[in-house]
Amino acid sequence: MKFSIKHESRGRIRVQLAQRRMTLDQADLVETWLQGLDAVDQAAVHERTCCAIIYYKEGGRAAVLKALRGFSYQSEEAAKLVVPHTSRATNREYQEKLVGMVCGKAVRDMFFPAPLRMAWTLCRSLPYLGRAVRCLWRRQLHVELLDGLSVGISMARGDFGTAGSVMFLLGLGELLEEWTHKKSVEDLARSMSLNIDRVWVKTEDGEVQLPLSKVRPGDRIAVHMGGMIPLDSVIDEGEVMVNQASLTGESIPVARRPGSTVYAGTVVEEGECILRVEKQCGGSRYDKIVSMIEQSEKLKSSAEDQASHLADKLVPYTLAGSAIAYLLTRNVTRALSVLMVDFSCALKLSMPLAVLSAMREASIHHATVKGGKFLEAIAKADTIVFDKTGTLTYACPVVAQVVTFGGREESEMLRLAACLEEHFPHSMANAVVRAAQQRGLTHEEMHSQVQYLVAHGIASTVKDEKVIIGSYHFVFEDEQSTIPAGEQAKFDALPPEYSHLYLAVGGELAAVICISDPLRSEAREVIQRLRELGVRKTVMLTGDSERTAAAIAAQVGVDEYHAEVLPEDKARFVEEERAAGHTVIMLGDGINDSPALSAANVGIAISDGAAIAREIADVTIAAENLFELVTLRQLSSSLMNRIHSNYRFVIGFNGSLIVLGAAGILLPAQSAMLHNLSTLGISLRSMTNLLDDTATGLR
Amino acid sequence: MNVYSKLALFAGGALFGSAGIKLLSSKDAKNVYTHTTAAVLRMKECVMDTVSTVQENAADILASAKDINEQRAAKEEAAACGEEETAAEEEETQEQA
Q: Is the ipTM of this complex over 0.90?
């Protein structure tokens, strides 16, 4: 693709692609493709000017330019690219509205004759006056009443200019809020959208893994516990408990039997099933999420609600102040100057913008926050509970050794283990599967029904023998397996620094798979930083054995740890902490963390973890770096600071405007202008980033 | 208002009601409206493109400005480091002497 370089600076380059027009789809395609390049940090494409703005990593300039030269819309690479739904169309629409409003006002003020302006202002004021009258009718003293009074009285005095400018600024503020709200909902929906791309399709030969796009209506797919239902389908076999939180907002799972319909994006919490696909992969899920988000109240934080109520409560005081000013000075102008200033609209406008902007900024740092109140809770939290596997450790444990018993062969045991483990989204399972792949051990599905018992293990039958794989507690205590005669010494000599996965065939221990689960290098520092930022208690809960847990806890520096914890106990621990008055953040990634995640004030899931954890969690963070947590905490604290400073500014500034108006120093037109400009100013400021780049230079 | 102006108003209204409406809704007039609307839309696109260009250039200027400041800061740091080193060397030579 031909292009010309329009501007360059360190780490940033703007290129203009050689085409006269660019459609929205083409722009989205180019942007997605650019963001997928290794050398690119961030990329944005403007379709109106056909320019692409690329922020590249150190030394990546040549690579970026080379890739651009080789790009073409018709190439195979471009055709295969999955382009997510972007807010390009929304942005375009609102940008046009904004420019239209500003240009319209300029043209009207400069070119329209006075009578025409008057007529226009009268027409525009009708909705405001209507809303004010409705407020009075319902005997409610709300912000709309003040706005309507402001506009109406200006017009009654013949001051159409002031009325016009008040309405213009109010309209501008409303447009900004609507735009930001819509964009936030879309961003949130996009990050909550379907993230799976391969499913198990049941054919005559057994289960085969296929990419989602190849699944046709009528195909049967298998979904196991903890997995996400990828497409709208009807249950053929199996009874399951389905969590429909992403669709209906309810976190209580519902039972579904053969014959009932289940929807794309919901998660199987218990049981397994075979589904017959009804609808092929499409955009229906995205729209459902958008409507769910808009209906839920989760986006609002309690600070916003408070601000809204405060705004309405202050209205009578403003009216009273105006009346008092009139009574004391007998001067209508002064009374009007007081009336023109209403605290209220600044509060109502800037608080939601601050919260929505913080949510947007969180998504820039790869965290998806599903509601404003969760940011509040993160800022207030004094206790953090961590899950060990996948959270404090990299979710990539590796198989270190396989110790066999009963004279069995290592590769056979590994093959068997992989065959069972590949159906489940647990990181230990992935380690076993990967190790088998590395050794070139392929298998056919030789087992029958696979049963997964949460936090315990997997049971199945292979060639008429019962095969189980899982923790010590499961294999030895629950299932009463025995160690083959004479191998007790070998068992005792198992290296203690690894986590152990026990495999038993026919009631007898067959092999122990030693898995090493390395701790994240940044874990210790992150806990230190969190303590500096005010988190008083850090706790680690794990289902692992006592000695591994003790070793990890000492290494990472948590205040408290509990080992061999079952999922219900995790939830109970969190509830006890909450009952004791603490605000608790829970961090986890697996199926067994979901009860605890819902019990906490804020449940944070790692985005690479089990689908159900991601669905239930209130916040998801990217898996690369635990410092995201520190950044989140800083972001939330900055947000609360900003909300408080907004309060102080609004009340202080508008209070002084009222005093000056009552003293006669400011005329109504001036006080209206200053008030509305300050409202707009504080709204715009609330939309800026909370953290600057230097604060997050901890990568 | 005398009789003639009233008569003129009446005649104007009658003309408008009969021939005027027909003219305003005829195909030729429709053509004119279509072309005018197309021109207005083109103007809107032109304005939006200008806004876009202005935004991009502003972003470019900001990026270059930040660059310049960073380079200056780096230069000053290097100069300050150089001064510290020479000051340290002078102290050492003074102590030795």
A: no
